[in-house]
Amino acid sequence: MKSILIITRRELNSFFDSLIAYIILALLLGFTGFLTWIRGFGNSDVFMLNQATLGQFIGVAYWTLFFIIPALTMRLIAEEKKTGTIELLLTKAISDRQVVIGKFLSTLLLICIALLLTLPYVITIASIGNLDLGEVICGYLGLILMSATYISIGLYASSITSNQIVAFLATLFIGLFFHIIFDLLKGAATGFIGDFFSMLSLSTHFESIARGVVDSKDIIYFLSIIILGLFLTEVSLSKRKISG
Fold it and tell me: What is the predicted pLDDT for the residue at 190?
């Protein structure tokens, strides 16, 4: 556990030392702030909706994080493979699993910090009307689970290449299936096939949680992809160490 915390702290510090964290925070707060308060999707900002709801923010953050996370994860392993520092890290008394979990937690913590900075939105909207706090909590939970899912996918993509751009595009490509394509396929299919694509669609499970309904099947869905992504990343690192 101590090794994981050391790696987590190391990676989190590297985000802030390289200004990446500040850029990500500025982008997230900038996009969500502008599209939530000034001009939202369909020209409907918070004031035009005329109701105390955080739905507009959740929708904007849902798409913003989808593009931000690949930019965060693309360097986590790919850069270390390119510079050779991953070899030094893996030769120390640290297991592959500890490296993977440490990098995963550091990125997730950065996302949580970014979301924490949006709490003034909640306070402001709550002052406008009767805000459903249960729905707010579920909305943030959905964003965190979604972020963790794409971080695990991004880690795997970063572990199979030393090129950050390739890792970025690979994460986006895989993410498109969960974010959009499965959702489109479920609408085009019926019966068992439609239900199957609905089960695979991340938006289906995210929207369920964001509405304030925390179902065990949705939690299991996110945890399954997260665990699979981390496992595949660990396997990828193990193969490289063995081949080396």
Answer: 78
Residue 83 CB-density burial (10 A; 0-12 exposed, 13-18 middle, 19+ buried): exposed
Q: What pTM did the predictor assign?
A: 0.89
**Cα separation, 6 vs 141, whole angstroms:** 26
- The first and second tokens of residue 148, run together, are 């963790």
User: Which two three-digit tokens encode residue 146?
Assistant: 């979604």
Between CA 163 and CA 158 the distance in angstroms is 8
Rounded distance between C-alpha atoms, residue 218 and residue 239, angstroms: 32
Per-residue pLDDT of 173-210, as tens digits, reads: 999 999 999 988 887 777 888 889 989 999 999 999 98
Residues 223, 24, 21, 124, CA torsion sign: negative
H-type alpha helices, 74-215: 78-83, 85-91, 96-116, 119-128, 133-159, 164-176, 182-188, 191-200, 202-210
Give backbone dihedrals phi and psi of 147, rounded to 5 degrees, phi first: -60, -45
Strand, coil or helix: 23: helix
- Nearest Cα neighbor of 177 from 145, 158, 146, 200 is 200
**Tokens for 129?**
């009307």
pLDDT at residue 189, as a whole number:
77
pLDDT tens digits for range 72-107: 999 888 877 777 666 666 666 678 888 899 999 999
Helix (H) / strand (E) element for 10: namely: helix 2-17
Distance in angstroms (rounded) separating the CA atoms of residues 68 and 166: 15
DSSP, res 41: G
3-state SS, residue 94: coil
pLDDT in tens, 13-50: 888 888 888 888 898 888 887 777 665 455 455 555 55
